[in-house]
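Now for one record:
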Amino acid sequence: MKTGSKHSSKVSLGLKENWKQFTLLVIINGFVGGMVGLERTILPEIAEVDFGMAAKTAILSFIVVFGIVKAVSNFYAGALADRIGRRKLLITGWLFALPVPFMLMYAGSWSWIIAANVLLGINQGLAWSSTVVMKIDLVGERNRGLAMGLNESAGYASVALVAFATGWVASEYGLRPYPFYIGIGLAGLGLLGSWLLIKDTIHHVRAESETSTVPRLKRLFAETSWKHPNLGSVTQAGLVNNLNDGLVWGLLPILLADLDFSLGRIGVITGIYPAIWGVGQLATGKMADHLSKKKMLFWGMLLQGVTLVLMGWAVSYLQFILLSFTLGLGTAIVYPTFLAAVADNTHPGQRAQSIGIFRLWRDLGYAIGALLTGVLADWFGIYTAVFAIGALTFASAWVIQLRMREKRYTQESKL
């Protein structure tokens, strides 16, 4: 204990006190998000044009694989964060990213695309989880929402920018290989930055543990997954959020192509959603520090559900622009609030594991969403899939409203 106390006395928690490392982690997470943006606009098009794939379930197989691998990686990232250190986990995540752009640009069969998404899923699970936990470690309790807003904003703004960029490059120079050159730069910069500039945050965790009054959970997996009213409510909403994101990622480009939108316009529509999602979190993250997290999660999920239902009736470019904007806004409201709420309800010593369990279920939503929407689209049509996922998102909002409690533990609370 003496060693831990000595180290703890040398560190200070807070955004202002740790702004240099925090800023570097924001930049690194921007590179992490950009790796997903590589696929966001053009991979469904590659499936149809380069590999002659028509079945929606088969096309969405890359999202199923990505979602499952990322979800499992999230879980192990939470378990390993305290054992090997956050920084080593981050560097390991980037090593898995290095082959991805080469595999995507030179893939001769769809199995290579699937293999690339296995590596991408591991990269996202380890690297994104590390940056999330490290930022929460640095800022302490006061600015968790803001910290998550900045983290997720950087990640999803990069998803949008790279989605815009790959759509434009593909429309000008073809689907492959040029759009994926961006990924080579992202992976290289992410690895070098993590290796040379990032420091571990374990001493910050020890410092917060000394004063935290949040009780430890006895059955962490069960409590985070469903049993705890707050954690369980957040976890189911996270799963549904990424379930509908899997729909937008995999089917929206196909739906727009069926409506004869150009590849450039598809890039704009699919890019606006993560752009608003990303930039909006700069405001919504800070709001989560001051407003009711329960109300923010309810209204954010409700807005997503209504938007998806309306998307099933949209036909014009302007309508899809507006709906992409509102879907991004709804997602921006909930995304940093998810992680801040999980951190509020877990002890600092269990935080990395609890976040890993939450992110396991949340990112399984990609796989579940891709499978569900693919089957619905193949059997009943794309519009049926859109309406069904919209209704499911609407129902998720009401789970939050009926089950989640306002009570929140703070360092000043007395148990």
Residues 11-403 form a domain with the Growth Hormone; Chain: A; fold (CATH 1.20.1250.20). The chain has one domain: 11-403. Confidence is low (pLDDT under 50) at residues 1-9, 408-415. Residues 71 and 363 are 5 Å apart (CA to CA).
